[in-house]
Write a structure and sequence with these properties.
- By secondary structure, the chain is mainly alpha-helical.
- The protein contains 15 helices and two strands.
- The protein has a domain of 145 residues: Ankyrin repeat-containing domain (Serine Threonine Protein Phosphatase 5, Tetratricopeptide repeat), CATH 1.25.40.20.
- Strands 1-2 form a two-stranded antiparallel ribbon.
- A hairpin with a 6-residue loop joins strand 1 and strand 2.
């Protein structure tokens, strides 16, 4: 009988412990649930007149709505493009910077990509924007302007070199530490890398990501990065690229038109140039 009573007391104690654990767990869950519920209730679409202000040039009005909490930080309406995308499309780089500094927005790879080929984007503002977004000191581009912007209408004989206006922007993206793979498509990257070779831009060479497949790709006009380097007859440049793992067997391939045709590889170009140093470097 004593054993049965003891066992009953033990069972009651176990059941009470289970109940207490359930109550404690419920209390803990409620602590997480209530703030989340409150947050869900707080974040609502602001009135249209408030939202519209963030698609304008009126930074004073934007500041008032941000300080008063009427516009949630980083808010992006589901029914239209975000304020930062709108500012980019309208070439309002100063507004883009304001939104990053004050309204909780960040610059995405897609945002950078959309600015690359917009002709009316101010270079100095673009430079300041990348500096702000990367958290790095602004780069002095005074010498770049004279060197690259004069090439606005100039192209190399094979058409592969990037217009100096765009080369300028690509270079800024690299110098600020953004990954070009996430910003530009493969053929455009190949074209840029060839431009780096044709410019013999030693400042950039050590900053490039040589694991990028675009290094062994072709432009529409055919050349590869390595074949372009061989044509420059710069032994040290070619050796640098070979040491970085570029494929020596990839051939020039012109594919702009229906009559696509294959050309020589790096070794065969060296043979045609009669350059013994390059021939020895590139032969299998």
């Amino acid at each position: 009988m004593k054993e049965r009573l003891a066992k009953n007391r033990e069972n009651k104690s176990t059941n009470m412990n289970k109940v207490n654990k359930v109550l404690i767990l419920s209390s803990i869950l409620s602590l997480f649930y209530l703030p989340c519920k409150a947050q869900i209730e707080i974040v609502k679409d602001p009135p249209s007149e408030i939202v519209d202000a963030f698609y304008s040039n009126d930074t004073t009005l934007m500041s008032e709505y941000i300080k008063s909490g009427k516009y949630p930080m980083g808010y992006k309406p589901s029914y239209r493009i975000s304020p930062i995308e709108s500012a980019i499309w309208k070439n309002r780089i100063a507004i883009v910077m304001f939104l990053i500094n004050n309204a909780g927005f960040t610059l995405t790879n897609d945002d950078i990509s959309s600015m690359l080929y917009r002709e009316h984007v101010n270079i100095d503002e673009f430079n300041s924007l990348l500096s702000l977004s990367s958290g790095k000191n602004k780069i002095d581009v005074t010498k770049w302007k004279e060197k690259y912007l004069n090439e606005w209408e100039n192209e190399s004989s094979d058409g592969a070199i990037l217009n100096g206006y765009y080369y300028f922007r690509f270079k800024l993206i690299i110098m600020y530490g953004f990954d070009l793979i996430n910003v530009v498509d493969s053929e455009q990257r190949t074209e840029f890398y060839i431009s780096v070779i044709e410019h013999q831009d030693l400042e950039l060479l050590d900053l490039l990501n040589y694991e990028d497949e675009a290094f062994n790709g072709h432009t529409c006009n055919g050349p590869t990065v390595l074949t372009s380097a061989v044509y420059s007859k710069n032994y040290y440049l070619v050796k640098y690229l070979v040491d970085k793992g570029l494929d020596k067997t990839v051939r020039i391939f012109e594919a702009c038109y229906d009559d696509a045709k294959e050309g020589p590889n790096a070794y065969e170009i060296a043979l045609s140039l009669g350059n013994k140093e390059l021939i020895d470097l590139l032969k299998d």
